Amino acid sequence: MTVVTAENVAEILENDIMVKVAGVDADGILRGKIMIKSKFLSSVQSGFGFSSAVFGWDMHDMLYQGGVDCSAEDGTYADFTAYPDLSSYRRLPWEDNIPLFLLTFFAGEKPVAVCPRGILKDLTNRLCQQNFKARAGVELEFTNFQTPSEDGYSSSANPRPNLAAFLAKNAPSAVRPLTEGMFGYSITRPVASKDYFYDIYKTAGEISCDVEGWHTESGPGVYEAALAVKDVAEIADRVSLFKLLTRCIGMKHGATPCFMAKPLHGLPGNSGHIHISLTDLEGNNAFARATPNPSPRWPDLEHVSDDGYHFLAGVIDAIPDIMPLLAPNVNSYKRFVENFWAPVWLTWGLEDRMASIRLIAPPTCKPGATRLEIRTPGADVHPHYALSALFLAGMRGINEKLDITVPPSSARSEQNDKPQLLANTLDKALRRFTAPQSIARKLFDAKFIEAYAASREHELRLWREAVTDWEFTRYVETV
User: Fold this and answer.
1) Start and end of every GS catalytic domain (predicted)?
2) How far apart are CA 89 and CA 16, in angstroms?
């Protein structure tokens, strides 16, 4: 990736007439616009005005109702100041290589409390003061549908990307997956849509959003992309950018990628597993022990350092209270079904893929790869909020030297160690998130908690008012 500075940015943009800028909103969606190059260059140091409405409305531009919102304090939706992050520079090949810069939002001299990129920047600064760096990788599963038109299905030769118009006149069940059947890790299924499949992979590399593993997952039309491990702020941006690029590439190929946690009944959902670790400032893994522990509390922890132990304890302690940051939508909780590879209980264990936290450590990996895989999030996860919450939780564990209160799966007694059930609705998760003694309140400031909770209450309110297809079909003739 080209290194852009205030001194060379004008030279790098010499042949451009416009620049695209985008910030991340409270739903993890990129919101942006096109700017004339001269205005962009004049804003590199001083920033520019950007409507605070992007934090005051939902993913369909409906203003949040009732209580605190995420925008300007006085309710006027006055401009925030947006600062371009020159280190985020990329060019978008599907838009004639227009340059793109990501934004961070300020209200006056203070970072906006709910600005996702601002929260992560603050986290990385705090970790650096303690001689740590945060590293993460994210695996995104997503279902791909054929993009329909009102009078039939489009194709790569005749793409007509108007899924919303189709759904206005048809039931969601009428939307067809790109391929049929269950075939994870298939080497034949991608051939049916190879232009789309490989275009995503190739384009991800072109915009510095490298995919290190790319395959079909179990489910009709489901792919999984494992985004390469990076510093935490960079990987969060890459998750948002990957979703952007798949949607844009899909338009060209007559496909609609879907990152809902549970798009189809009776099938596994789309996961968004997050791998996290700490290193020191020289890059040495902070979770790994130099020599095996001769008397670990459980054999699972034989190769885990004291910092790794306390970090894991902090994450275990926090997960029940930070669920809305890991599973942010009403639909997120439809994914938590037993025997569908989604964790229903608060559990952990060495190489346990059925647990909510999978510890990956020697002897199954090299010491430098020691990490935690958080298996709770779905593909609809807000990467910036979730990663902030997980690392803040882990650092609380280190700073307060917390003990692990939950035995690993291998040591759990069926009779005496029944695991804690995680929230199975957004409503229940929010009650824990906002409770006076919630661990979330120990990790984030009060303004963020209230603003984010208001945005999720808004989602719940809309859902409670909705009449679903299931309700209509079940009751239309019988009640």
Assistant:
1) 116-479
2) 14
Is the separation of the CB atoms in 89 and 12 below 8 Å?
Answer: yes
Residue 273: which of 386, 187, 189 has the closest Cα? 386
C-alpha angle 25-71-50 in degrees, rounded to nearest 5: 65
Report angle CA 72, 74, 80 to the nearest 5 degrees: 25
What pLDDT does residue 194 have? 94
Q: How far apart are CA 222 and CA 144, in angstroms?
A: 6
Which of 98, 83, 101, 86 minimizes the C-alpha distance to 241? Answer: 101
Q: Are 242 and 210 in contact (CB under 8 A)?
A: no
> Mean pLDDT, 10 residues at a time, over the chain (479 residues)?
92 97 97 97 96 92 70 73 97 97 93 95 96 98 86 55 74 86 90 94 96 94 96 98 96 94 92 98 96 95 98 98 98 88 93 96 96 98 98 98 94 76 97 98 95 95 93 92
Q: What are 19's strand-pairing partners?
A: 35
Stated length of the chain: 479
SS3 state of residue 342: coil
Q: From CA 195, how far away is CA 214, in angstroms rounded? A: 14
3-state class of 460 per DSSP? helix
Question: Quick one: tokens of 70?
Answer: 């995420």
Q: How far apart are CA 261 and CA 328, in angstroms?
A: 10
- Cα–Cα nearest to 376, from 333, 433, 428: 333
How far is 167 from 417, CA to CA, in rounded Å?
A: 46
> How many Cα atoms are found within 13 Å in the side-chain-facing hemisphere of 348?
24
Supply 24's token pair: 């991340």
d(CA 449, CA 451): 6
